[in-house]
Amino acid sequence: MKPVSSRVFVDQYEHRFRIGKEISRGGQGVVYETPEADYAVKIVDPRTSGGGDSDPATAIERNIERIRLLPIPDGLPLASPVTFLREPSKGGFGYAMRFVSGTVSFLEHFYKGVADVEINAAFRHSLPETLSDEERKKRLRFLSRYAEQGNARVRTLALADLACTLARLHSAGVVYRDLSPANVLFRRPKNNLPLRSYLIDPDNLCLTGDVSEKKQPIYTPGYGAPEKLDQSNPPLPRWTEDAWSFAVLAYRVLTSGRPFPENEADGDDWDRPQDAASPSFSYSPADGIPLIRLVQPNVRSLFQKTLGEGAAQPNRRVPLLLWAFGLAKSADLMVECPNCHMAFFPDNETECPWCKGPRPRCVEVMTPRWTLFLSERSKGPKEVLFDLPSRLFKPFSPVSWNATEFRVRCSFDDQTLIPTRKTDLPSETALRWMTERPPHEV
Description:
Blueprint: E1 8-10, E2 16-18, E3 22-26, E4 29-33, E5 39-44, H1 56-68, E6 81-86, E7 93-98, E8 104-105, H2 106-112, H3 133-149, H4 152-171, E9 174-175, E10 184-187, E11 196-199, E12 206-207, H5 239-255, H6 297-308, H7 320-332, E13 335-336, E14 343-344, E15 362-366, E16 371-375, E17 383-389, E18 404-411, E19 416-419, E20 430-434
Antiparallel strand pairs: 1-2, 3-4, 4-5, 5-7, 6-7, 8-10, 9-12, 10-11, 13-14, 15-16, 15-20, 17-18, 18-19
């Protein structure tokens, strides 16, 4: 984070916004926190804000009004523009947007992460004996950092929440257009607040097929769909470009690797397939964790359709609602290892594949619609509180998919799951208890 600035911006009502720490930086400007916890400020680069107006400030002011008129669904976790800002002392300009405090960007959290992570020696049990000492230390540091930043279940749920937001935008006929890790904020579950992903930097939103937006492609290097890289014939805005950017983002967040071989000729655009007609998408990145260890087969299929077949055929890419459904399904089939804090699929393993520790005690909660695992987090209280989400009992909805339907008290000793309210779980709910594997068992 950059140090707090003394720059002050003023809106049309003479309200003053003092900019603070930098949140994200892109080709069109920089987003900052403010002392007002509910607001952030974007300072716009005048070189990218002409838009047909001789005065860049006029262009960005008109753009704010344009975004306000878009049919953005109510309650969407999107930092909508609030007011145009000018900087009296230096002539700068930008806009204020809604902001959620206590969040951090995907870029800061999942890409950069912890600088000096504490090495978890438990991971050494799963490393091949053939590794050199240097390779072993590097792998231990990588796995320890991955677990500290958030295991595969945490990452998959964060991505599912982001996919729900984009699906709601697309259902309203709106395209985001510039999805990147710097433009997505993340909040881990804390103090009864659920995990949540938020979109910021909304100044490129537009309607699907808006002819007036067919000027020059807008994208963050490394996340632009192949068809957007053709400067001579930029496509009309469509949901398919968001689907491509999301798939690249999801791949990087989950695997900590890259979906395509690095191509130096493309400069920063290392995510562009070298040949769109025969893309070289891989399930196993050279510098990360293979997808097969992180998600279910249905999610791997979504990656193949979007980044493989969808490279040359945009219509083959998967809509964001199906991404949200698949990611949530996959995440709910995972449990967290209390020893190393990584996540894995307990149905396929009798021990944690990351540290070889015993599988924690867990219960599989099944309904005709959904399956979800609850696991013992640590050797603690006899009863543990869990929230059962609405997706377990109701049709999957991008609006309420993660809303709590029941809060339950779970006892792994007594193998009971009882709602805290004086009511019973629906009669079609089935439970399957899975005991911990004893350490001496082979």
